[in-house]
Specification:
This protein has 247 residues and is mainly α. It has two domains: 139 residues, Orthogonal Bundle (Cytochrome Bc1 Complex, Chain D, domain 2), CATH 1.10.760.10; 86 residues, Orthogonal Bundle (Cytochrome Bc1 Complex, Chain D, domain 2), CATH 1.10.760. 48% of the residues lie in helices and 0% in strands. The longest helix is centred in the first third of the chain and has 25 residues.
């Protein structure tokens, strides 16, 4: 365990340096208009259907569709994903295959507006019901094993998720999104996509390098824990206080 903690500390230090460098190099101005973002999120725009259709009115995602939680994930991350979708750097599968088209129909400012709006959605969590998923025949993981992986990684193979994504996956803007309390199905799908390379818009290829060493069971375990992970530290600090706010 000592080696795992030492490895996690080193990874966190490297991640912090990367975050600082990227933030300074790119700049992350919070110049979205939440009011216009809400309009598009709730009502759509031209050929773009309302975001809430798949992601829910509170932005907490839809398990059955594999649609992720967007609420309060961090402004820079949402802007980046919408831009990557619009410009062909991210090509989702399944129900998400419509996203590149929708994103391409939004102006760069409208993408910022949507990101600004969903970053304000600090609502009551709507967590995945892992027991219900299991009862429906969906394979799920072992929660305590997922907690070990998230906090300590896999010896000599996988860095701890907390090294980059923070305590219980609460995020480290602007580079690392919130993955704690993300939808179970979405987490599983994305980890598989990182592993097989069908998703490749990760900075410096970091997620692909991590995911290639995860087994199917590792993925299920990590998703089981992260999708229901507590949102506070032992000291009681709410993870949403670490998310950037619109200006």
């Amino acid at each position: 365990m000592y080696k795992s903690l030492k490895k996690a500390s080193l990874a966190l230090a490297v991640a912090s340096t990367l975050v600082s460098s990227i933030a300074m190099a790119e700049g992350v101005p919070m110049d979205g208009n939440p009011a216009n973002g809400k309009q598009i999120f709730m009502n759509g725009k031209g050929p773009v259907v309302a975001c809430m259709t798949c992601h829910g009115p509170t932005g907490w995602g839809t398990e059955a569709m594999g649609a992720p939680r967007l609420a309060n994930l961090g402004y820079p991350y949402i802007v980046k994903q919408l831009t990557d979708l619009a410009e062909g750097r991210r090509v989702p599968q399944g129900a998400g295959a419509v996203m590149p088209y929708f994103a391409s129909q939004l102006t760069p400012q409208e993408r910022k507006d949507i990101a600004a709006y969903v970053n304000t959605l600090n609502t009551t969590p709507e967590l995945s019901d892992v027991k219900e998923l299991q009862a429906s025949g969906q394979p799920v993981g072992v929660r305590y094993k997922g907690e070990i992986l998230v906090k300590y990684g896999v010896e000599n193979k996988v860095s701890a998720c907390v090294s980059c994504h923070g305590y219980n996956g609460r995020g480290a803007p602007p580079m690392f999104p919130v993955i704690g309390q993300q939808k179970f199905t979405y987490l599983v799908n994305q980890l598989h996509n990182w592993r097989d390379g069908s998703r490749a818009n990760d900075p410096l290829g970091m997620m692909r390098a991590i995911a290639k060493n995860l087994t199917d069971q590792d993925i299920l375990d990590a998703a089981t824990y992260l999708s229901t992970a507590p949102r506070t530290t032992q000291g009681g600090s709410d993870y949403t206080s670490f998310s950037p706010k619109t200006q």
